[in-house]
Specification:
26% of the residues lie in helices and 27% in strands. The protein is an alpha/beta fold. The strands form four sheets. It has an eight-stranded mixed beta sheet. It has a two-stranded antiparallel ribbon with strand order 2-3. A two-stranded antiparallel sheet has the order 7-13. The protein binds 1-O-phosphono-alpha-D-glucopyranose (G1P). 1-O-phosphono-alpha-D-glucopyranose (G1P) binds next to strand 11 and helix 7.
Length: 256
């Protein structure tokens, strides 16, 4: 399985911090933000990785990560997103690297306490489709939010005003190679982005979307509040210091 780290975008919710650098290069406690999602992939033994960057500071990723040796990566590739077309638009740049394999996609501002090994194993058992990871949060309207009934996802809404559950769809996704054809069918949303939520809903319609619930804390770091939370979480739990970060967690279930 190959890994895709999405680290483009303007990071406008963190202005002026992001006026002269990329959001994913900002510090979270004692290391640059992008180190955490890369470590999450490595902890799940995903060592062929592509970083999708963008903006004026993309060269800094090469200086920071070089050939991936510090993370014990087998391969690190880089690609460049022109403009800010959203998560699905960034992901499609990874298609030539993926070469038809299954992928794990992680947003460059998503930080977790433990690991995604159980979710990866659940997805490996699927012959096709996608697997998403949910986490209960107090502010589900800030995220992709699923409607759930009897343990099945009925639909996912992006940043709903009235969330239909208290779960967020985290920025950790597993896809088969049909994801690129699905991205090709998405249309720009009201915020003029190709939404990953639309892609996940296409898998749901095909009845090939499964999900698991993440164990341990999860946070994004794309707003001042969440960036501070990420820093506090990492410093308090020492999540950055634990090799492999913990125990196999989670339970997994099929949405269908
Ligand atoms: C993005 C996705 C959203 C997901 C979130 C996780 O939101 O669009 O579905 O729940 O990442 O971090 P954004 O970072 O664009 O607010």
């Amino acid at each position: 399985m190959k890994g895709v780290v999405l680290a483009g975008g303007k990071g406008s919710r963190l202005y002026p911090l992001t006026r002269v650098t990329n959001k994913h290069l900002l510090p979270v406690y004692d290391r640059p933000m992008v180190f955490y999602p890369i470590q999450t992939l490595v902890d799940a033994d995903i060592r062929d990785v592509i970083i999708v960057t963008g903006g004026q500071n993309s060269g800094d990723f090469l200086r920071l990560l070089s050939n991936g040796k510090d993370f014990n990566l087998h391969r690190i590739h880089y690609t460049y997103q022109e403009g800010e077309g959203g998560i699905a638009d960034a992901l499609r740049l990874a298609e030539p690297f993926v070469e038809g394999e299954k992928i794990c996609v992680i947003l460059g501002d998503n930080i977790i306490e433990n690991n995604i090994i159980a979710s990866k194993q659940a997805f490996e058992k699927q012959s096709a489709g996608a697997h998403i990871i949910l986490k209960e949060v107090p502010d589900a309207g800030r995220f992709g939010c699923p409607e759930i009934s009897d343990g099945r996802i009925l639909g996912i809404e992006e940043k709903p005003k009235s969330p239909k559950s208290s779960y967020a769809v985290t920025g950790l996704y597993f896809y088969d190679a049909t994801v690129f054809e699905k991205i090709g069918r998405t249309k720009p949303s009201s915020r003029n982005e190709l939404e990953i939520t639309d892609v996940n809903n296409m898998y749901l319609q095909e009845r090939t979307l499964t999900h698991s619930i993440l164990d341990g804390w999860w946070t994004d770091a794309g707003t001042f509040e969440s960036l501070q939370r990420a820093t506090n979480m990492v410093s308090e739990t020492g999540a950055n210091k634990i090799p492999g970060r913990g125990k196999p967690p989670q339970h997994s279930r099929n949405s269908e």
